[in-house]
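Technical annex B. To support the medicinal chemistry partners, we prepared a structural model of the target in complex with (2S)-2-hydroxybutanedioic acid, based solely on the information shown next.
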Amino acid sequence: MFEHVAPYAGDPIFRVAAQYQADPRENKVNLTIGLYFEDDGSVPLLAATQAAEQRWAAQKLSRVYLPMEGLESYRNATQKLVFGDQHEAYLSQRIATIQTLGGTGALKVGGDLLHEAYPNSQMWISDPAWDNHHAIFGGCGIKTNKYRYFDPQTQGVDFNGMLADLNHLPEDSFVLLHPCCHNPTGADLSTAQWDELIALLQAKKLIPFLDMAYQGFGKGLDEDAYAIRAMAEAGLEFLVANSYSKNFSYYAERCGALSVVCKDKAEVDLTLGKLKAWVRKNYSNPPIHGGAAIALVLTDPELFQSWEHDVTAMRARIHTMRQAVHQHLTRLAPHYDADYMIKQQGMFSYTGLSLEQILRLREEFGVYMLDSGRISIPGLTTKNVEYYAKSLAAVV
Ligand code: LMR
């Protein structure tokens, strides 16, 4: 039946992660997929989620369908976390939020709604991008394009190039942005740059879609949401996808949310209706288990404190590993500019290595990074960080 279809080339992230798994060497290093590892190499199950899961399971509730928009307590707690409970947009109830299947599910439902409402608009995505952004919005029927984002010379954002590209877009174009911890480069805008960008988006009547998959991994839970809160304050209408995969270490539970900031409460009702229709057409309604646990953690002061403590520890460990690589490389490879390790933030960084160097690292040293040169920092630990730096020094 499907003999005529083109074979799937595999995902550029999952494919290299699988190659790493298949490597029998004991000293191999996994810097591929965005997973947070503890210093002992394990992926944590957080104490707060574990307690919440047990508490929820003990209630022995029947597993009836959730509404299409998901759990009420989860949706409300998400708004508070993403926007802040004192934000005008939250207090005046002009945000429509639904529970989604991870951040990816939020992007898909948001893309479907955008394409329905603005069938002639195209999507603009940072260059380089998380490859799946092009795939997801393409799958919604939206044509995707690139705007300039990364400057390899400064290892930071090509802000002038970005503004110049966005400045030329037709009204109602969609613009995909990362509020913090840009994937794949780790290069983020400053708050002053966000303010300038927000003014441009508003003046040009563009439609922003903010994808926040790493809240808490950059500077802090509130700091990382700066762009979202400032944008809502400036009066823009836009979409936000947020994910709990990383900051709850809850990857397989597929917990995320889609929020649409609207003009007023009446528009929220209309938007929520449309979102429900797209959820119904896509997968009917979300699962309950992970969402119920997250809702408990976010609404119980003690569990929240425990979770916040863990997020802080995860962020601190990433920071420590960034510093350690930088120190080692300054000593081992003084001709190689490793400042990006301390200039960039979050889970990922761009090493700037060539494909030839990347393949040598894989074959000779068992060090696995993506073909683009992106590394996922939490794969580094106090045990392997020097080995990583030595391996890298050997190929540059
Ligand atoms: C990544 O970029 O490695 C993560 O977001 C995992 C994924 O789904 O690609």
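Notes passed to the chemistry partners:
Residues 13, 33-34, 130, 132, 183 surround (2S)-2-hydroxybutanedioic acid (CB under 6 Å).
DSSP finds 15 helices and 13 strands in the chain.
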